[in-house]
């Protein structure tokens, strides 16, 4: 799991003894519960979050908070964290500003997709703990409660195995059992309502996360080696074979995607010439926050998929990679979950923008590299990649990064097929250079700074 933290905010506590007691209590909690993510929005931005619907902005309300201001939005969501999170507690302060008919403000856990998750919802007159499966709602527990607009409430949502439980202001709402989602990100949501959200904290311990009385840790953009997350995709990487298309879809130009595009496992073809020219158009061009899922890209596929901001590629397959399968351009977090790619003479995933690429449950065959952080783009960034539960065969390098710019690559559960001599390079190191020059190769293999993995436990050869 990736640890993401935000800037500290030290609140004013009137009495010294009270301050000591509060901080001591929080310190004790933190000692037993690792903080996976926290955000108090004091830096004034939503870096690390991905939006789906609604009108979101960081506003000042005593302190800074995240506000969704469009009460007419049917489904407004912001997601953060890692799709590999399984058992954790998420807490947040939530202030409803207005409720429309059937409206609510909510905290989400194990967001497997944008419509499948667990939800703790504030409604006028009640609080409900819900399991939401592709938009279908099952109420696991509920409590009658006066919920007023303009009032802050502290919500806590814990997922542990198949048990889901919730609290509001420290009082239990109830618990229930569900198998809707075994893992996923956290999020906040409004449905026909406007609301503000603040002091979001995710802890990997089952139980209340740190309260908002104490200091909030600062955000660090650098991932650290952590326990292997449990894969959440329903399509694990195959040992062999390729999916059979359900149909054919003719492509004559770039398909623009905002929101979610579900291809229904059809084969989309064709665009470009199948060569290595970087001037080719992409087959799919994803707007910030978009999701592309259940798609087979036939050959030629031009320059594959372009992500212009945070994006999700779920169960996407490339039959024959031309220039690149996907290029990540301008976001903070990009997720590749499930799917596979083959016949990439250079690389499969090209990371040109900032942020972190998360690759999980993926199959790579006959490729130069699975991932490459750009070493000579016009803009130089510190970039990160996490690679988990990935199988590669006939692939020269799993990930290439630029150590002089502080890039990191974190690996877990990597299976290399058909390489008994261990020639496949897991992590290749370069020194990045300005555009127009060629990066310098400076080494390969694990270390404690840039290439984060244990070759004895994180890599398996078969």
TrEMBL record:
InterPro entries: ConA-like_dom_sf (IPR013320), Pectate_lyase_PlyH/PlyE-like (IPR004898), Pectin_lyas_fold (IPR012334), Pectin_lyase_fold/virulence (IPR011050). Residues 1-33 form the signal peptide. Keywords: Calcium, Lyase, Secreted, Signal. The keyword Ligase does not apply. Its main location: secreted. Its cofactor is Ca(2+). It catalyses: Eliminative cleavage of (1->4)-alpha-D-galacturonan to give oligosaccharides with 4-deoxy-alpha-D-galact-4-enuronosyl groups at their non-reducing ends. Residues 218-240 have a biased composition (Pro residues). Residues 207-217 have a biased composition (Low complexity). It comes from the Bacteria. Its EC number is 4.2.2.2. It is found in: Secreted. Pfam families: Laminin_G_3, Pectate_lyase. Residues 201-254 are annotated as: Disordered. The keyword rRNA processing does not apply. Belongs to the polysaccharide lyase 3 family. This is pectate lyase.
């Amino acid at each position: 799991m990736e640890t993401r933290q935000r800037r500290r905010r030290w609140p004013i506590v009137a009495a010294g003894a009270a301050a000591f007691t509060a901080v001591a209590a929080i310190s004790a909690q933190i000692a037993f519960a690792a903080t996976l993510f926290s955000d108090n929005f004091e830096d004034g931005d939503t870096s690390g979050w991905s939006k789906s619907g609604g009108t979101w902005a960081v506003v000042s309300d005593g302190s800074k908070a995240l506000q969704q201001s469009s009460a007419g939005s049917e489904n407004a969501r912001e997601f953060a964290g890692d799709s590999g999170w399984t058992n954790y507690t998420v807490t947040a302060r939530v202030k409803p500003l207005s409720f429309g008919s059937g409206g609510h403000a909510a905290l989400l856990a194990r967001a497997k997709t944008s419509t499948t998750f667990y939800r703790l919802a504030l409604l006028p007159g009640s609080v409900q703990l819900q399991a939401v499966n592709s938009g279908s709602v099952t109420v696991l527990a509920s409590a009658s409660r006066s919920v007023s607009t303009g009032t802050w409430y502290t919500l806590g949502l814990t997922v542990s195995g198949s048990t889901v439980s919730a609290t509001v202001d420290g009082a239990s709402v109830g618990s229930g059992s569900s198998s809707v989602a075994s893992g996923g990100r956290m999020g906040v949501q409004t449905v026909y309502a406007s609301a503000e959200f603040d002091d979001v904290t995710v802890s990997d311990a089952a139980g209340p996360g740190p309260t908002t009385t104490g200091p909030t840790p600062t955000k660090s953009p650098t991932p650290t080696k952590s326990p292997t997350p449990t894969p959440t995709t329903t399509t694990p990487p195959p040992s062999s074979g390729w999916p059979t298309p359900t149909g054919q879809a003719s492509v004559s130009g770039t398909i623009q995607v905002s929101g979610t595009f579900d291809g229904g496992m059809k084969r989309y073809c064709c665009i470009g010439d199948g060569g290595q020219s970087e001037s080719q158009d992409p087959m799919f061009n994803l707007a910030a926050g978009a999701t592309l899922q259940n798609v087979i890209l036939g050959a030629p596929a031009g320059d594959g998929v372009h992500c212009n901001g945070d994006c999700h590629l779920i169960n996407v397959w490339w039959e024959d990679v031309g220039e690149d399968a996907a290029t990540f351009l301008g976001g903070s977090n990009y997720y590749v979950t499930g799917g596979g790619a083959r016949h990439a003479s250079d690389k499969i995933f090209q990371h040109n923008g900032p942020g972190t690429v998360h690759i999980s449950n993926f199959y790579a065959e006959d490729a130069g590299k699975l991932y490459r952080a750009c070493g000579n783009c016009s803009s130089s960034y510190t970039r990160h990649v996490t690679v988990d539960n990935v199988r590669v065969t006939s692939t020269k390098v799993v990930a290439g990064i630029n150590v002089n710019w502080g890039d990191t690559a974190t690996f877990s559960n990597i299976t290399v097929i058909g390489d008994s001599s261990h020639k496949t390079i897991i992590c290749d190191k370069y020194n990045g250079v300005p555009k127009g020059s060629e990066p310098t190769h400076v080494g390969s293999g694990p270390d404690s700074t840039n290439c984060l993995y244990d070759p004895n436990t994180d890599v398996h050869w078969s």
